[in-house]
């Protein structure tokens, strides 16, 4: 993990994300790309009036000064931090900036149950979390050690989720305990025990070429996927939830509708998503 991008809106939640990124950066000797989207009226970007240019430069200078003050944190000491101020109101560009700089991870802060903080609302949340080609880690509270000792990878074990699973393994320390999870829900996607076990075996064979992790697969039944994941994470004392995402098509198979956003908002622990 060489580069971590952190969108900054000067809230305490983006500070939580920045501190989480700092912990990861120290563990992996990574660079942090601190990104602030400078919100200005559309007219300032498109105006041909020369008088508007000094006004735009003035606001840009103020933002840069505030940004420098925000980045003056003790936990960033010894870390290579690159500040980026982008003149845009569209936070969907976060993933684009990450791709341009070849970032390995996006770390964002969240209110939790109340939804994403300030700039991360509505469609912007979906565009960053659901559409990003880069893995996204969402932080809800001030991190301590940010230990990922017990991690859940929730999936339907389809073949298209193999790539996300392999990316997830690379993000974890070798000492981490990973619990694979399949949530069986009522309805047309309901599967028998033998069907779930066969699907998990096929998945692991495709992903790793063996069944060594078959004993780490957990099958739970619940009224919704979200409830199943949250209940299981509480049961095992998980430190992190990992999910495959399918971009514009929604989350893979049973991760449809608003499951990703609901889980991100309602889970108290960090959630990391991977595009498939």
UniProtKB/TrEMBL annotation:
Residues 1-140, 156-274 form the UspA domain. InterPro entries: Rossmann-like_a/b/a_fold, Universal_stress_UspA, UspA. Belongs to the universal stress protein A family. This is Nucleotide-binding universal stress UspA family protein. It comes from Gelidibacter sediminis.
């Amino acid at each position: 993990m060489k580069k971590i991008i952190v969108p900054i809106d000067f809230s305490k939640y983006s500070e939580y994300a920045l501190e989480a990124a700092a912990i990861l950066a120290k563990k992996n000797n990574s660079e942090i790309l601190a990104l602030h989207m400078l919100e200005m009226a559309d007219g300032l970007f498109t105006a041909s009036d020369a008088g508007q240019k000094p006004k735009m430069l003035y606001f840009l200078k103020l933002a840069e000064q505030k940004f420098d003050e925000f980045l003056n944190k003790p936990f960033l000491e010894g870390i290579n931090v690159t500040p980026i101020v982008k003149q845009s109101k569209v936070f969907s560009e976060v993933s684009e900036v990450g791709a341009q700089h070849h970032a390995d991870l996006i770390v964002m802060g969240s209110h939790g149950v109340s939804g994403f903080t300030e700039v991360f609302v509505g469609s912007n949340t979906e565009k960053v979390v659901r559409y990003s080609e880069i893995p996204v880690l969402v932080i809800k509270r001030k991190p301590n050690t940010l230990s990922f000792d017990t991690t859940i990878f929730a999936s339907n074990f389809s073949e298209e989720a193999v790539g996300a699973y392999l990316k997830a393994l690379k993000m974890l320390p070798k000492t981490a305990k990973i619990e694979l999870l399949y949530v069986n829900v009522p309805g047309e996607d309901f599967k028998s025990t033998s069907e779930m076990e066969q699907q998990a075996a096929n998945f692991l064979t495709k992903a790793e070429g063996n069944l060594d992790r078959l004993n780490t697969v957990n099958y739970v039944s619940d009224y919704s996927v979200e409830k199943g994941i949250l209940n299981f994470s509480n049961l095992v004392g998980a430190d992190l939830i990992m999910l495959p995402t399918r971009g514009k098509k929604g989350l893979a198979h049973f991760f449809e509708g608003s499951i990703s956003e609901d889980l991100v908002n309602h889970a108290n622990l960090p959630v990391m998503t991977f595009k498939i």
